[in-house]
């Protein structure tokens, strides 16, 4: 008899119900998962642990992910972890963290797991974090990992940006020479993974999005205000621009949600532990100092349309990189910068 795989169906808990439960939970806890949810995540972590040497099955399970309700083309789950605000506190901001949009960028998945571990230890409830460590499981979890999803579509070219039908095809043909690694698909939001992210943006209403990639060794930024960080750890700001169907254009330029793209140095090699921590603490400091919820209120009030952002500022030009190494920061000062600061 063929053994039933828990990957064949999505999680039994709809995403909006999970969000409602998690919103009122105390920090660093989640609602008790069902047996079906546990089976889904256990199998998912077992598969991930066999693929990534930097994330073991036990470490994956320890992060207490739950099925989000979203699935990939092949039906693999898109597990998520919420770190909600303190019960008595309105969060200063909601932050959506995305790893593994491209399946061959291993480090973009592994580093998010390391950051979740830091959040478990030092989360104070100042922000509401929603973390999806692996957006493209079909691309990663196969014998030879690939940038695209199971249908050969680049998820970071599949978002419904303005004039997508004409611009995305034109860009793919003329600018990439029909590079199969950057194929945008036949229509916008054709892929379930991109659909999930679009729904999360509409329902979770993040005040900032953090997308992790590799291996360009830089920091990119779209949208705003505010002004972007000049650096996160060893990564310096270098504005790349956006592409038809990219998340940066869709969320950053068109929805005016600040989006930080962290491009790690290597796709297949994790940064040193000190760099992992420094990128994270610089990120949280920047979020703490610059991001505020523009429309406080019940998280599930989906019908309301946000007020438009102020007019976009002139393109930001980062200062030149310093010629001397920055002063080292003591480790204990780097771990948590959500330090007991109440939102203004």
Explain what this protein looks like in three dimensions.
The protein has 344 residues and is an alpha/beta fold. It is built from ten helices and nine strands. The protein has a seven-stranded mixed sheet with strand order 1-2-4-3-5-9-6, sandwiched between helices. It has a two-stranded antiparallel ribbon with strand order 7-8. A hairpin with a 5-residue loop joins strand 1 and strand 2. It is globular and about 50 Å long. The termini are far apart. The N terminus and C terminus are likely disordered.
The portion of residues forming beta strands comes to 5-15%
Major sheet strand order: 1-2-4-3-5-9-6
Gross geometry: globular
SSE pattern: HHHEEEHEHHHEEEEHEHH
Spatial gap, N to C terminus: 60 Å
If helices are DSSP runs of H or I spanning 4 or more residues, what is the number of helices? 10
Summarize the structure.
By secondary structure, this protein is an alpha/beta fold. Helix content is 31%, strand content 12%.
Topology (elements, then pairings):
Elements: H1 15-23, H2 35-51, H3 57-62, E1 66-71, E2 77-83, E3 94-98, H4 106-122, E4 128-132, H5 137-140, H6 164-175, H7 192-204, E5 208-213, E6 218-222, E7 231-232, E8 235-236, H8 247-254, E9 259-263, H9 273-290, H10 331-334
Parallel strand pairs: 3-4, 3-5, 5-9
Antiparallel strand pairs: 1-2, 2-4, 6-9, 7-8
């Amino acid at each position: 008899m063929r053994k039933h795989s828990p990957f064949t169906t999505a999680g039994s808990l709809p995403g909006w119900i999970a969000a409602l439960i998690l919103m009122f939970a105390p920090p660093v806890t989640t609602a008790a998962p069902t047996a079906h949810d546990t089976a889904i995540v256990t199998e998912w972590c077992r598969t991930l642990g066999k693929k990534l040497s930097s994330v073991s099955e036990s470490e994956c399970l320890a992060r207490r992910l739950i099925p989000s309700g979203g699935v990939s083309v092949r039906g693999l789950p898109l597990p998520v972890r919420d770190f909600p605000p303190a019960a008595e506190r309105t969060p200063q901001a909601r932050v959506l963290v995305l790893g593994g949009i491209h399946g061959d960028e291993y480090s973009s998945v592994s580093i998010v797991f390391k950051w979740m571990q830091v959040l478990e230890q030092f989360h104070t409830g100042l922000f509401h974090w929603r973390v999806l460590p692996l957006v493209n499981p079909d691309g990663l979890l196969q014998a030879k990992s690939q940038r695209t999803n199971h249908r050969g579509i680049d998820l970071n070219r599949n978002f419904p940006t303005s004039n997508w039908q004409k611009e995305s095809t034109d860009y793919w043909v003329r600018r990439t020479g029909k590079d199969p690694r950057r194929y945008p698909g036949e229509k916008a939001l054709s892929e379930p993974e991109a659909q999930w992210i679009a729904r999360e943006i509409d329902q979770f209403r993040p005040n900032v999005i953090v997308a992790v990639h590799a291996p360009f060794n830089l920091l990119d930024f779209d949208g705003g205000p505010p002004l972007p960080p000049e650096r996160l750890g060893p990564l310096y700001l270098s504005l790349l621009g956006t592409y038809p169907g990219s998340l940066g254009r869709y969320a950053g330029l068109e929805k005016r949600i600040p989006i930080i793209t962290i491009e790690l140095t290597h796709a297949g090699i994790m940064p040193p532990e000190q760099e992992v921590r420094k990128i994270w603490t610089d990120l949280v400091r920047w979020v703490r100092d610059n991001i505020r919820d523009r429309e406080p209120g019940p998280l599930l009030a989906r019908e309301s349309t946000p007020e438009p952002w102020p007019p976009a500022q002139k393109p930001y030009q980062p200062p030149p990189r310093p010629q001397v190494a920055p002063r080292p920061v003591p480790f204990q000062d780097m771990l948590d910068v959500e330090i007991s600061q109440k939102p203004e």
